[in-house]
Amino acid sequence: MEEGAARFSEQRSAEVVAASFASADERLRRVLTSFVHHLHAFVKDVELAEREWELAIDFLTRTGQRSDDRRQEFILLSDVLGVSMLVETINHRTGGRSTESTVLGPFHMVASPPRALGDTIALEGKGTPCLVSGRVTGADGEPVPGARLDVWQANADGFYDVQQPGVQSELNLRGLFTADADGGYWFRSIVPRYYPIPDDGPVGELLAATGRHPYRPAHLHFIVSAPGYRPVTTHVFVADSPYLDSDAVFGVKDSLIREVPEVDDPDRAAAAGLPNPFRSLTFDPVLLREAAAD
Ligand SMILES: [Fe+2]
Question: How many A from CA of 180 to the centre of ligand 1?
Answer without folding.
Answer: 26
